[in-house]
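Appendix B. Extra example for self-study. Work through it before the problem class; the solution is given directly after the inputs so you can check yourself.
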Amino acid sequence: MNLVNVEGLSVRYGARTVLSHVSLGVAKGEIVTIVGPNGSGKTSLLRAIIGAVKPAQGKVSRGADVKIGYVPQKLHIDETLPMTVTRFLNLPHSVTAQDIEAALTQAGVPNLSKSQLSQLSGGQFQRVLLARALIGNPDLLLLDEATQGLDQRGSASFYQQIEAVRQETGCAVLMISHELHVVMSASDRVICLNGHVCCEGTPAVVASAPEYRALFGTGTRGALALYQHDHDHNHDHAEAAE
Amino acid sequence: MLDDFMVRAALAGIGVAIAAAPLGCFVVWRRMAYFGDATAHAAILGVALSLAFSMSVFIGAMAVALIMALTVNLLSGRGYAMDTLLGVLAHSALAFGLVAVSFLSGIRIDLMSYLFGDILAVSRGDLSVIWSGALLVVLLIGWRWSALLTSTLNEDLAYASEINPKREQLVLTVALAITVAVAIKVVGVLLIAALLIIPAAAARPLSRTPEGMAVAAGAIGMLSTVVGLRAAYVLDTPAGPSIVCVAALTFLASSMLKSALSARS
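Solution. Structure tokens for the complete assembly:
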């Protein structure tokens, strides 16, 4: 039983089709990463899952009682809006102080509860967004380019945090990322999207798929090799797809 | 006590300030300052129509303000930037209103009081309209507060929490129309936007949370009303503009306080 099922989803903005016939599912506890070039419909896919865009075709179904925690791509807090971290984590429903401390600790920023959102650094802000998504113990975390604007070290440590959260709570993660080399090593499954699903499978399978190489070239393979076992040769186990 | 026109004026101003405070905060946070202007300008057309058909001014102003607000809601995101759209609608509604008024004989002088308001002429009946409207707006905004705040932060966050930001914007729009209709007699069309925005802006440096800002804006609005009325009485100045002047001075003071505090820390 999947947490979320997307079946034959098409999304159109006016006359422009951004997604056509996309099907995918996320099972309990797995980390799935969506990669794809700009304009490939990654964000639209996540927005369709949270219900922010209506499918032109197909459907998105959630299991009963599946709780979703969402971390948006960018969150601009207007200077005129005063907002402490605690107040932010209490939106839209108020939660206990213990829950807030727990979520902030899980997200790796335990001492920020009294800070103003506008005074946080980029990395702190992303972690506070993560903390908000973690409140209420979601079964599925959706992350849309959650490390945009972070340097390489910052984003690597952010993804380690995600991995740790998954270990701790067992929640599934569906995320979009540009940082192929970091993300691919941390994912159970990778979906390569370009308006439609080009290819999907384990990181190793996707990285060597011709569709993926056509989109991202061979340049990323060098970076991948830093983080992954070299898979130009054959392993004994079945995982080696080549 | 209500026999004293100064007491009635103060109560009217306080009623408007209470409704305008939480609403003004949202107007500031969502950068829709011109929305208040546009709705207020459209209300003049409503005033003209209600005078023509001898209806209650409140009903006419409210109906046109609502239609205007809904039109903007509907048209936004269809190829025109919001400020362009508001500019077109606001000024054309005002122009049509003024032209419509010219067809009616003998009410030219009254119109001035709707442009600038006449808080000193507030009757007991006006008071009950103002306070019912203010109460309605506060209840409406209070009821939707969390959902509105979440939608204001980010529409996708709202969707993810199963809140429909379009519906919340509609709530805000309706509340704005009610406030404009209620306030038109007190401060007039030209100063309504000031009463929405200035107290909220003045409250910003003094607040750490959205709720704190709404309460502070309410307090500043009420203070401005009372002090402004007193100043108008003593200095023999027009009442509505005097209230706005006091609010503006409060804004200046709170901005200076903010710079002083940030310079020290």
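Self-check: The two ends of chain A are 30 Å apart (CA to CA). If your reasoning did not lead you there, revisit section 3.
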